[in-house]
Amino acid sequence: MFHLFSYTIGAAMTTLAIWRLSAIAPGDTHRRALWACYAGCALALWLRSPAIRDWLNRSSITDLSVLLMHYAATASILAILTYVTSVEGPGASAAAAEPWPVTFALWLQRTANRVLLVQIVLMTVLFLTVVDRSAPSHAFVPDHAGQWGAALYMTVFHICLGVTSALCGYLWASALRRADTPLLRAGLILMCTSMCLSVVYVLIQLGFVWLAVAEPVNPQFALQLDTYVEGLHDGIFGLFAAGVCLPATSGAATRLATWRTLWRLHPLWRDLTTAIPDVAWHAPGARLREVTRLSMPLDVQLDRWTQEIADAVDQLRHHAPPMLLTVAEDTVAGHDDAQPAAEALWIKAALCAMADGARNDIASTALPTKPIANSYAEACWLVRVQTVYATITPSQAREVFRAAVMAHEPTG
Question: What is the pTM of this model?
Answer without folding.
Answer: 0.64
